[in-house]
Amino acid sequence: MTGTATKTPETEGSKRNWMREHSELGICVLLALLGVLVLSDAASISTDFTQRGPVGPKTVPFLIGGLLLLVSVLLARDVLRGGHGESETGEDVDLSAPSDWRTVLLLSASFLANAVLINVIGFPLSGMILFWACAYALGSRNAVRDPLLAAVLSVVTYFVFNNLLGVPLPGGPLMGVL
């Protein structure tokens, strides 16, 4: 033998077993990539017109990106030291049940409709449609309460972002009324 390693079924099995036991490392890699993406995007944010004090528009994205990297490193350390996530044992969780694709598709359609409609009819109306459609997709069927709560939530969100935080949102036809 010349000292070259040959692959045996035992070494392949142990490698596969190690990967299965440390599968949470994939989440660590995903978190690290997301952190790098957030940090790189935050570095490219222009601050010339939005800087209003010592805390600018880059602060929160840098904080979130740094925390994502920190969590990925801490989670990787825990996984490599033998830690692992607990299996799902909740009494209301049926792991053998199929995925509820109808709900996923309805939620996706409501977010897409909001993205398409926000510049056409404004945030208060598109937000109302979004909030009501999400409530409907998640099982609420109250014909009076749901649209009313969606309208209140949408208008409050509009005022918080537009007036308090200074983030301009399209008002649409309700611009003169609100």
Automatic annotation (TrEMBL):
<feature type="transmembrane region" description="Helical">
    <location>
        <begin position="25"/>
        <end position="47"/>
    </location>
</feature>
<feature type="domain" description="DUF1468">
    <location>
        <begin position="28"/>
        <end position="170"/>
    </location>
</feature>
<keyword id="KW-0472">Membrane</keyword>
<protein>
    <submittedName>
        <fullName>Tripartite tricarboxylate transporter TctB family protein</fullName>
    </submittedName>
</protein>
<feature type="transmembrane region" description="Helical">
    <location>
        <begin position="59"/>
        <end position="76"/>
    </location>
</feature>
<feature type="transmembrane region" description="Helical">
    <location>
        <begin position="150"/>
        <end position="169"/>
    </location>
</feature>
<dbReference type="InterPro" id="IPR009936">
    <property type="entry name" value="DUF1468"/>
</dbReference>
<dbReference type="Pfam" id="PF07331">
    <property type="entry name" value="TctB"/>
</dbReference>
<keyword id="KW-0812">Transmembrane</keyword>
<keyword id="KW-1133">Transmembrane helix</keyword>
<feature type="transmembrane region" description="Helical">
    <location>
        <begin position="111"/>
        <end position="138"/>
    </location>
</feature>
